[in-house]
């Protein structure tokens, strides 16, 4: 079994918070105050990290939020999403180093590869651009001068004076299911993230990624992004899951899924396949419910059950070699509290180490 897993929560910066999926409520729309509540809840309950997602049409800016929340937390790490192509690399380096200093060295980075609004870029060049950025970040944040003459970035620059606390690049988390994405991950990321899938499918992807990284003389850590619905009994958890969808109609769900910039990606298609393969109640395997994907693009399934079932599911994933878990639930502050009381105290966990 792997070392202690990292148990992280999700801050709904992209307006992704609901009492009933597909039914926006003003008090749950992203704002500094609402997302601060989620962050401070995660801090108080003992989560290890907090994902700050990135979006364009929806929500608040995650880099600005990271800088605002950093002085208010004392032990929680932040997993800041950086969208490739959005900012000039040297600017990103200064931002990351600054925020890492504000956090006392507790910054981690989630690299997002997608087309920019109005941009059309095929998979291969898009992920080639992603690899370039990851290598540039590692070079400059490791304090090394850079002369980069790539396809997408061309510049010569010394590393910035401001550095991270460790003097090294924070761990880079990254995910993608296409062949191009897998090659990019094997080439440059530190933690390969996966969306929900059946356990045999997860194992197959992990074996494939281990082999791809080994060809480059590298090793990857593995992470898992999934929702949770935990209650005192399984019946109550299933009822809570059903309640989330009780006001959703098919057209609203389709419109929500279509908003994402990666709505046609291989990973998103796989989430749709999971929903289609599930039984009539939406469960594709024990305690893995795909109904949540009817109202969101991307991560589209939840671990549903009583505290023992949810803990056992996470431990089973951990036994497979998954070491980082990024969890979420609806509404986010309340579900973070439930998981934090029912499950988190009974899991050995801690910040992910790359050693």
Written account of the structure:
By secondary structure, this protein is α/β, with parallel strands linked by helices. It has eleven helices and 13 strands. The protein has a single domain (6-346), classed as Alpha-Beta Barrel (TIM Barrel), CATH 3.20.20.30. It has helices at residues 32-45, 62-69, 89-102, 123-141, 179-188, 199-215, 234-244, 250-258, 266-277, 307-320, 332-342, and strands spanning 6-10, 49-52, 77-83, 107-112, 146-149, 154-157, 172-175, 191-194, 221-230, 283-285, 288-289, 302-305, 324-328. The chain has an eight-stranded parallel barrel, surrounded by eight helices. Strand 3 (77-83), helix 3 and strand 4 (107-112) form a beta-alpha-beta unit. Helix 5 packs across helix 6. The two termini are 16 Å apart.
Largest sheet, strands/sense/barrel? 8 strands, parallel, barrel
Beta-strand level of the residues, as a percent range?
15-25%
Distance between the termini: 16 Å
CATH topology: TIM Barrel
């Amino acid at each position: 079994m792997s070392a202690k897993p990292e148990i992280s929560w999700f801050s709904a910066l992209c307006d992704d918070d609901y009492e009933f999926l597909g039914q926006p409520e003003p008090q749950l729309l992203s704002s500094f105050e609402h997302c601060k509540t989620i962050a401070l809840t995660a801090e108080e309950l003992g989560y290890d990290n907090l994902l700050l997602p990135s979006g364009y049409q929806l929500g608040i800016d995650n880099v600005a939020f990271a800088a605002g929340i950093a002085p208010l937390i004392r032990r929680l790490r932040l997993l800041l999403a950086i969208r490739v192509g959005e900012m000039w690399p040297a600017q990103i380096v200064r931002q990351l180093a600054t925020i890492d200093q504000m956090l006392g060295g507790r910054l981690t980075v989630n690299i997002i590869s997608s087309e920019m609004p109005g941009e059309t870029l095929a998979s291969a060049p898009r992920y080639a651009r992603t690899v370039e950025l990851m290598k540039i970040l590692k070079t400059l944040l490791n304090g090394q001068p850079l002369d980069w003459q790539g396809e997408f970035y061309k510049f010569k620059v010394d590393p910035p004076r401001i550095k991270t606390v460790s003097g090294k690049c924070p761990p880079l988390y990254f995910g993608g299911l296409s062949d191009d994405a897998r090659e990019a991950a094997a080439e440059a990321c530190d933690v390969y993230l996966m969306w929900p899938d059946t356990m045999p499918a997860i194992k197959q992807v992990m074996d494939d990624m281990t082999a791809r990284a080994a060809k480059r003389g590298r090793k990857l850590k593995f992470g898992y992004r999934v929702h949770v619905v935990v209650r005192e009994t399984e019946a109550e958890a299933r009822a809570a899951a059903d309640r989330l969808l009780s006001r959703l109609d098919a057209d609203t769900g389709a419109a929500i899924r279509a908003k994402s910039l990666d709505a046609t990606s291989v990973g998103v298609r796989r989430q749709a396949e999971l929903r289609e393969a599930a039984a009539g109640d939406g469960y594709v395997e024990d305690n893995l419910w795909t109904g949540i994907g009817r109202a969101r693009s991307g991560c589209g399934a939840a671990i549903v059950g009583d505290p023992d079932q949810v803990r056992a599911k996470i431990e089973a994933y951990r036994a497979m070699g998954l070491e980082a878990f990024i969890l979420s639930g609806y509404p986010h502050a309340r579900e973070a509290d439930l998981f934090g009381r029912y499950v988190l105290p009974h899991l050995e966990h801690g910040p992910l180490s790359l050693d």
